[in-house]
Amino acid sequence: MTRLLAPLMLAVFAAPALAAPPATDPPPELTDYVNKADASFAWKLVGKKEKFLGTVYTLELVSQTWHDTKWDHKLLVFVAKGVTPQPTMVLWNEGDAPTGDGADEMGLMISGQVRAPVAFLFGVPKQPLYGGKKEDALIAESFVRYLETEDGSWPLLFPMVKSVVRGMDALQAFAKQEWKCEVKDFVVAGASKRGWTAWLTAATGDKRVKAIAPLVFDSVHIAVQMDNQVKAFGKPSEMIHDYAERKLVPIPRTAAAARLWKIIDPWSYRDRLTLPKLIVCGTNDPYWPLDALNSYWDGLKGDKWVLYVPNAGHNLSEKDKDGKEQKLPLRAIATVCAFCRGQVYDKPLPKVNCDMVCPPGAGCLDVSLLCDVKPLAARVFSATALTRDFRKSFWEDRSLDLEGMKGECRIDAPKSGLRATLVEMQFQLEDLTYTLSTPLRIQEAPKK
């Protein structure tokens, strides 16, 4: 096939990407809330235990008082054996408090992989509240209260972000007290609504946020994503029923609703989001249309990477053809650890460019891959569906032959329905083997 030229590297990966108009000044409600003084902030070290894999510190944190409710948190700090404090720390934000030893084992394993202390902040958000509401039902309740009052302190994402900011404050003070060293910045990570929180924590402009790793939150540019869901699924995903039941989606055509979705959308703050970003998605996540990333990827500034975990849903654990699921999301853990180590030690991940072009009348997809580091291997993953709903599709892979840092192949169009395609590369960072992906492209069968 004809070699694709470098200028084509900026071609669209799926349906035509939305042009990214210049962002206006970010709305002030988020920073107004986060920066507001709150005398209830406090932290203390309440425990230290030595385990086989390393040391676990337990801190108790009060991040704020939100509408007369004190937000208290467990903040665990993990230091694997052989690991020493670094100027950069990883901060993962999580929901309910830990039970058993699972968090200790996971935290120490990640600390060992990252080669730096790692902190897990629990209780983001404080829940249950308002009649036992948790998670999306609680967020939806806060959104309704915003629409009723137009009080910018109501959206639950804002106190969730403030929890992370106060967590950074506590960790810096803890490091000085316990280790006699300075932690200057953080890689902030989290999954689902905690991934949303990671985006918005960076959106505050807090310079301590060095990088973010939002997992399974693929709804940046929210108004567009709501339309995407209807186009892909025929209606909003049943996974966001808490918002639909409160008549928050479809987004009401009111000024207050437009303002609400603007102030909690990372897209509104994209001029601030120039820091390194690792976006992790499951190809079969029931929350989001498969090509959701394409609605905002080109508009993101700064270094950015994506990992699609094939045949994985919202928990990122892969399934085989028989539906058997992995116990742990190993592919996601490996890549997140590599990203975090790279940020801690200033060794950024490889740059990846992939051009996917449908030549006019050819009935195929020409794929051209170019990396600035030679991958260990590369594979093309594809899945088919009768409609744009790929949630039940199984992803098959085939090897992509490489010539140094380049690779090319041709993917035939499906005979019927649609086919989605992405490329995955495997890389090595010292002792860590991890994978990165390209954005994907959806092909339609030729019209007869």
Short description:
This protein has nine helices and 18 strands. With 448 residues, the protein is α/β, with parallel strands linked by helices.
Key features of this structure:
18 strands, 448 residues, nine-stranded mixed beta sheet, Rossmann fold, 29% strand, five-stranded antiparallel beta sheet, disordered N terminus, alpha/beta, 9 helices
Q: How would you describe this structure to a colleague?
A:
The protein has nine helices and 18 strands. The chain has about 450 residues and is an alpha/beta fold. It has a domain of about 250 residues: Rossmann fold (3-Layer(aba) Sandwich), CATH 3.40.50. The strands form three sheets. It has a nine-stranded mixed sheet with strand order 1-2-3-5-4-6-7-8-9. Strands 12, 13, 16, 17 and 18 form a five-stranded antiparallel sheet that branches. Strands 10-11-15-14 form a four-stranded antiparallel sheet, with no helix packed on it. Helix 1 packs parallel to helix 4 and helix 4 packs across helix 5.
